């Protein structure tokens, strides 16, 4: 019975339980009690997208997704995050029995993990790979906090199923989506998708820029240019507005509910959405439910973005920023 240590506590977020709990409470309290006329949590909002950067950057944005999340029927929580350090063509599961947080431990749902392993489609993370990856860990304190607000004791908390998603092809994303669709259709399953959005700057090898022009403004998929360090900083629009437009295009594609539309957007812009593959897997799973007539009424299974922020407002070509977005989907 092994426990994954909270390897990023003390650096990416506070290792002091009292400090961490207070920070999470503060960020959650800053989110309105309703969004677009819908009281939070949004009924049947069982799927969210939320960022995974250090909490000083992404903690406030993530609160919008977590406060939207409906845990009233939850019996298991699937957590899908991208692999940053481990090359992985598919998906991998954890070998641990628990995941530690400064607030308390989350118990792995070994039954579901074993069911997924029996498909023969999942690798198993090594202990080192598991503890190196931050995309899963950064959601654990928020998950624990939300469970503590929804259940009377830790013994009642839903089990966790962490899934590390590698550099999956579109076909692989559809394959994993089909595997996860039956779990997604279960009203007692919750899915948390870990993703930051645009990583802009030469240090990320992404300096794509959308100039303002009548032709580009009228097109949902305009052509842009890659800026070089020696280029004069553009002002029409400023770089940060171009980044915002690139992210909005990606978010619009996700909100269509069409997996292929999201993939097409990424092909056209190259936007460095680091959780593109876990997002793709879940979008593919939702499409399976739609084809089977299990996604319910109109707009069920459609993501709704509720918050968007950037780490800084880039104006110079040598600057950089990372974008953070939060969304929910009802099922």
Provide structural commentary.
- This protein has helices at residues 17-29, 55-68, 110-117, 127-132, 140-150, 170-184, 214-217, 239-255, 259-269, 276-291; strands at residues 3-4, 34-35, 38-39, 45-50, 76-82, 91-93, 98-99, 106-107, 122-124, 159-165, 189-194, 199-200, 208-209, 225-226, 303-310, 321-330.
- It has 331 residues and is α/β, with parallel strands linked by helices.
- The chain has one domain (3-330): Protocatechuate 4,5-dioxygenase, Chain B (3-Layer(aba) Sandwich).
- α6 packs across α10 (276-291).
- The radius of gyration is 19 Å and the shape is globular.
Secondary structure elements and pairings:
Blueprint: E1 3-4, H1 17-29, E2 34-35, E3 38-39, E4 45-50, H2 55-68, E5 76-82, E6 91-93, E7 98-99, E8 106-107, H3 110-117, E9 122-124, H4 127-132, H5 140-150, E10 159-165, H6 170-184, E11 189-194, E12 199-200, E13 208-209, H7 214-217, E14 225-226, H8 239-255, H9 259-269, H10 276-291, E15 303-310, E16 321-330
Parallel strand pairs: 1-7, 4-11, 5-10, 5-11, 6-9
Antiparallel strand pairs: 2-3, 4-16, 6-10, 7-8, 12-16, 13-14, 15-16
